[in-house]
Write a structure and sequence with these properties.
Belongs to the 4-toluene sulfonate uptake permease (TSUP) (TC 2.A.102) family. This protein is mostly helical. It has one domain. The protein has 10 helices and no strands. The radius of gyration is 17 Å and the shape is globular. The model has no long low-confidence stretch (mean pLDDT 90).
Length: 260
């Protein structure tokens, strides 16, 4: 990958900057970053694309997680088990990543995103404030199940993981969009770390590209987290709908052959 032009590197960095911002607010930065990597590195293997994406993403999720933790103070009794099971699920997903074609996931993910987006649009009060639907061990069990399932998806493929975490934490567990986004960032950091624990020993990470994009992703993550905290749950909700809509158009367009 030493033959990349300056223009390609700049475009990859801009994509990572945008992805970091989107990820920090509602997740879904892979919608921007993965296609950019596929276009910018046409000769790379799929596992190298996934691994390099994880390296760039963990830079952004590190700074956005720290920002959310300082300003929102999410409850560790929820995000602790959520992160632990997300880590395990992501490692399992990364182990099978090179054996699962994206075509298996795309139709299912499209249906889920359409349902999620429609539900959020038709439920305007959803996520305005925290009203937990479970308590005690049931709440912890729901958080752990969420972490394991979405963590596996993130390790195996990844795009939209943060958005799935946000929606599940808001729609299933009952958090506000701001609190849900804070916990989603922490869980997403754990899934990125777990995937890298598998990809790095395999030699799959393209370090120069990944670190460059990581620096840009970090900046985007910092700005995105501060913006979400300052603007609150209403802003996060609107941004969530926009990102999910864009994701539906992208995956739906690919399945219909509108673009490559």
């Amino acid at each position: 990958m030493d033959d990349l032009t300056t223009t390609t590197l700049v475009l990859l960095a801009l994509a990572a900057l945008t992805a970091g911002f989107v990820d920090a607010v509602v997740g879904g930065g892979g919608l921007v970053q993965l296609p950019a990597l596929l276009l910018g590195l046409p000769g790379a293997a799929p596992v190298e694309i996934l691994a390099t994406n994880k390296l760039a993403s963990i830079c952004g999720t590190t700074v956005s997680s720290a920002t959310y933790y300082r300003r929102v103070r999410p409850d560790p009794r929820t995000f602790g088990p959520l992160m632990a099971l997300a880590f395990v699920g992501s490692m399992l997903g990364a182990l099978v990543a090179s054996h699962i074609p994206s075509s298996v996931f795309d139709p299912l993910v499209l249906v889920v995103l359409v349902v999620v987006g429609t539900y959020v649009v038709l439920t305007p009060t959803l996520g305005e404030r925290t009203e937990l639907r479970f308590s005690g061990h049931r709440h912890t069990a729901a958080a752990m199940a969420t972490g394991l399932a979405i963590g596996f998806y993130d390790g195996a493929l990844g795009p939209g993981t943060g958005s799935f975490f946000v929606f599940t934490l808001v729609g299933l567990l009952g958090y506000s969009f701001l609190e849900g986004s804070a916990k989603a960032r922490l869980a997403n950091w754990a899934t990125n770390l777990a995937a890298l624990c598998i990809f790095v020993p395999q030699g799959a990470v393209l370090w120069k590209v990944g670190l460059l994009m990581g620096a840009a992703n970090l900046l985007g993550g910092y700005v995105g987290a501060r913006t979400a905290v300052r603007r609150g749950s209403r802003f996060v909700r609107v941004f969530f709908i926009v990102v999910v809509g864009a994701f539906v158009l992208r995956i739906g367009g690919e399945l219909l052959g509108w673009w490559g």
